[in-house]
Amino acid sequence: MLILEKLHLKRIGTLIVPSRRYEIIGIEGDGIAILRRDDGFTKIVWGHNIVTNEGDKYYAQKACGESPTNNFNSCYLATAGPATPAKTDDYDDFTVVSGSEKAVSSGYPKTNDDDSDNTGAGVDIVTWKFFYAASDGPFTSITHSFISVASAGSGSPILNSYKWSSSWDKDSSTTCTIFFNHEMSGQ
């Protein structure tokens, strides 16, 4: 995706050029990390995830109006994880960054997300949103993420296993919004 911006030049007029305020890493996927610096620079990192076996059970229980076995509600960032996310992944498959636990944003999860930053939303897609303020972190060399229970630890089940297309950093002048989109495929 090429992002363009207009430059207004006094003598020449308006010139449309590729934006230098954005960096996009990876191709579209079912997850997006949007990092925004104080100076307006935005970095968008794409990646892919898989809903785990425990995640499938969670969605089935929610669909039947049952209380889920696991109260998935927190995102965790990791500096290492599975080369290929798998249905059987759990907390122990990741190198979790200390202090990276973040509760799901108010009003999420939901379908048909109306947040304009989430380009992967849809009527049959469940979106989870997590927001890290500038004061959160810093976090460096993030390669993986997942959703689990609050205060997760060794052996904890996870809802999804996620690998970013490229590692990324979040410093104290940057916010980070993460969207995980899970499409209900009906299989």
Q: What does the secondary structure layout of this molecule look like, with pairings?
A:
Layout: E1 4-9, E2 13-18, E3 22-25, E4 31-37, E5 42-51, H1 53-63, E6 74-80, E7 95-96, E8 102-103, E9 110-111, E10 125-132, E11 139-148, E12 158-170, E13 174-183
Parallel strand pairs: 3-5
Antiparallel strand pairs: 1-2, 4-5, 4-13, 5-12, 6-7, 6-8, 6-11, 9-10, 10-13, 11-12
Descriptive notes:
Strand 1 and strand 2 form a beta hairpin. This protein has one domain (20-183). Helices cover 6% and strands 47% of the residues. It is built from one helix and 13 strands. It is mainly β and 187 residues long. Strands 3, 4, 5, 6, 7, 8, 9, 10, 11, 12 and 13 form an eleven-stranded mixed beta sheet that branches. The longest helix is centred in the first third of the chain and has 11 residues, at 53-63.
Output mean pLDDT.
Answer: 87
Strand-residue fraction? over 45%
The first-to-last residue Cα distance is: 31 Å
Structural classification: mainly beta
Order of helices and strands: EEEEEHEEEEEEEE
Main pleated-sheet profile: 11 strands, mixed
Number of domains: 1
Count up the helices.
Answer: 1
General shape: globular
Helix content: under 10%
β-strand number = 13
Radius of gyration: 18 Å
Uncertain runs are: 1-9, 14-19
What would the keywords be for this entry?
1 helix, 11-stranded mixed β-sheet, mainly beta, 187 residues
Provide a short characterization of the protein structure.
The protein is mainly β.
